[in-house]
Amino acid sequence: MKTALALPLDHSVINVHFDMDRAQAIFESLGFQLTPRGRHSLGSINHLIVLNNDYLEIVGLPTQTDVLRQEVLDSPIGIDGLVFQTKSADQTYADLTAKKLPIQPVQAFSRPVELEGNSYLASFRTTRFSPGTYGAGRVYFCQHLTPELVWRKAWQKHPNEVIRTMGCLVVTQHPASEAKKYLAASGGTCTQGAHGEYRIGAEHYELVFLTPAQYDTCYGELACQQTTRESFFGALAFQTKNLKHVSTYVTMAQKRFPEIKFREQQDRISVSIPFYNALIDFIQER
């Protein structure tokens, strides 16, 4: 029987609050190309790391203004968002409402994009689960009204040769039941892995659910710190075409930011960014 696949991943989010300048410098040091800084109409700022099919959003808050995006301000620093693609935010809202799931009304917002001296407006429609529905952070759906203003070839070329998101790790005391909760958002099929972990698979990525003990055994001193949340996003994994290039950039980044820690293995490099309680796995393309 064919295994049902989860929804496509739109993007993941790392929240840096008011520390965007340093975050930009760190991720560029790691060999990523960041888009120019964007400013949302809701009161947040961001940089994107645009990949083949998805992207990583570095989101923060502007200074010298009273207009602040409350959900970003209320969320802790760290890996804070998991966003699925939808072709229609309105239809997603209607479908999940019919299932009596705690989904919030559709929200429309935009941000200006400057391209070759011209100004455009990148527009989105989202629908989000109510705060606290998922212990690890914000989970929602995004409809891109202007995808051509996000997935641009010039922004998809990274010096570290990262090409896509491979997975997101959720750390929880109850991996089986937590995975079932995510199925309500992502769809797909949940299976148990060889080491007792639970996995939800999609075409280009996996969601993996581990206990804190399993997580600590896997990552040791690189592991993210447990927050006040009942679960947390413990790592993001990215595929690279050239792990040697990643090694070069990570080594240079650590010289500039000595707090960064990393571990090299045959097929991956794990990098801890303690400023943002974030862990990234770079995995060699096979």
Key structural traits:
about 290 residues; alpha+beta; 2,3-Dihydroxybiphenyl 1,2-Dioxygenase, domain 1; 6 helices
How many strands appear in the DSSP assignment?
16
Which fold name corresponds to the CATH topology of the largest domain? Answer: 2,3-Dihydroxybiphenyl 1,2-Dioxygenase, domain 1
The span between the termini is 26 Å
- The main sheet orders its strands as 2-3-4-1-5-8-7-6
Q: What is the second-level CATH architecture of the largest domain?
A: Roll
As for the number of domains, it is 2
Mean pLDDT: 94
**Helix-strand pattern, N to C?**
EHEEEHEHEEEEHEEEHEHEEE
Reported for the largest beta sheet, the result is: 8 strands, mixed
Into which percent range does the helicity of residues fall?
10-25%
Question: In percent, how much strand structure appears in the residues?
Answer: 35-45%
The tally of helices reads 6
Unreliable runs:
none
CATH superfamily of the largest domain: 2,3-Dihydroxybiphenyl 1,2-Dioxygenase, domain 1
User: Which structural class best describes the helix and strand composition?
Assistant: alpha+beta
Question: Which word captures the global form?
Answer: globular
Rg on CA atoms, Å: 18 Å
CATH class of the largest domain: Alpha Beta
